[in-house]
Amino acid sequence: MKRSVLKLTASLLLAAALFVGPVTAPALAEDTTSSSTSSSAPESSSSQQTAPEATPVPQVPGTANPTGGAYVVAATVTDVAGGEVSTVDWGDKVNIVLKIVDRASAKFNVKPEEIAARINSSVFTFTGTAEIGQFYEENDDPTGQNDPAYNYYSYVLLFRDVVYNGGGNTLPIDLSYVDNALPMQQFSVTIGQCVDEDPNDPSKARAPSLIVRQSSYGNETITAGSPFTLSLTVYAASGTESLSDVVASVTLPEGVTMTGGSLSTYIGSMSPKSTKDVSFSLQASAGFTGGVADITVNLVGAGALSGNAVTGSTVISVPISQPDRFEVGQLQISDTIYVGNSTSVTLNFVNKGKNPVANLEATISGENLGADMTQQYIGNVNAGTENSVDFDLMPTQAGPMSGTITLTYEAEDGSLKTVTKDFSATVMDMPTYDDPSMMDPGMDMAQPSAGFPVWGIVLILVAVVAVVVIVVVVIRKKKKAAAVASLEDDDEDL
């Protein structure tokens, strides 16, 4: 049965929370095993006298006495920021977190604030006392009777900013009490992450590896024909000796040249975990069409003590695009526009670049346009291709009309680009036709046939009229004569 006996100070709780991941879980797992196996658990722990592996659940050796004493059941080593580390070199500053089973303190009924834990070794430099957190009173009586003889404390010891000096990997701990009459408890744990190699011993020196930690070439895409600077941060990784005669060089692909300086830069000496910045002035040719320039960075150096050669290389991919030369030409629109009459506006465009543009779209917007269609999808435009886009307009009121045609497309590098063209015109009212001399501008005037004079048409009309008059007179005379003859016949009959 577990019961909390102390609310720790805010700083101790913060320390415990910082390492709850790497420490608490394995510690509790070990405690569970200890509870189930009673007094055999500490002896099992003492049998594991090998260095712990650098894993999230470290295997920690310890010595235990079921009837008294203290020992370690779990340990974690982190950097000062709290990140777990796998190796600790000479001069490194780390935090050491230990999960403790303390039977002696429980036997003496010592309160947590009366416990002081110190490191007693020249191998590790630490001043002050450890922080105590996650403090519990526990009992592992195998009979389940909670015999006080099986009472023990479990808690976390946090040693901050411990400096590893080399000379071994055993961490001895002195556990003392405010009551000096109580006997001091002493125990130790092996910190397997320690690399016990003297950086001044050539036979044990280990040179750092060389890598490019960061690279930059300025913009997201370099335009062919434009200069650019390749900036590099060279990093000497963890080691036990410095490097000398470090040189950085570049191998350039076809179409990429230097604009100044040399293909190699002498860096000189580098200590472990240090960085140096170098740069190269480069330019892609105007005709570069490869899309991406793969530049190889070569790094060489040697161990300052051992003389061992160190090399490294990496490839920096620099995207290079041709300049965008998509252009719009003249815009065409009628000089005379009437309200309600349909007209059109036309915009010419051309792709003068060496690469096609994709997904070209045209849109029109503005005032008093009356356009039924405001967007058109044109598609891809190959290099050297010329075309145009038309929009039909029908303004609804007299006065000014203004608009903008926008062309949107995808460049070679995938970026979205736009080109715009503005236009304006004046819309006039449709003229009225009360004056017979006025004609509908949309109607064609009837014109006499070419080559036939007006007077000829007049003569023809007069002749037609004369013929009609003659015919009428003749018909009338015939009708009158017929009537007279009929009367004479009637008289004879009488």
Textual characterization of the structure:
It is a single chain. The longest helix has 40 residues, at 454-493. It contains 5 helices and 26 strands. Helices cover 16% and strands 43% of the residues. It starts with a strand and ends with a helix. The model is unreliable at 1-67 (pLDDT under 50). The chain folds into 3 domains: 3-190, no CATH class; 210-321, Sandwich (Immunoglobulin-like); 326-428, Sandwich (Immunoglobulin-like). The protein is an alpha+beta fold and 494 residues long. Strand 8 and strand 9 (185-190) form a beta hairpin. It has helices at 10-18, 20-37, 40-46, 103-107, 454-493, and strands at 3-4, 70-79, 93-102, 115-119, 124-125, 131-139, 151-164, 170-177, 185-190, 210-216, 222-223, 227-236, 243-251, 256-260, 264-270, 275-284, 292-303, 309-321, 326-333, 337-338, 343-351, 357-367, 375-381, 386-393, 399-410, 416-428.
Q: For the residues shown, what is the average pLDDT? A: 78
Euclidean distance between termini CA atoms: 166 Å
Number of domains: 3
Structure classification: alpha+beta
What about the largest sheet?
A: 6 strands, antiparallel
Helix content: 10-25%
Which stretches are low in confidence, meaning pLDDT under 50 for 5 or more residues running? 1-67
Q: How many helical elements?
A: 5
Number of strands: 26
What amount of the residues lies in strands? 35-45%
Radius of gyration: 51 Å
Overall, the morphology is elongated
Multimeric state of these chains? single chain
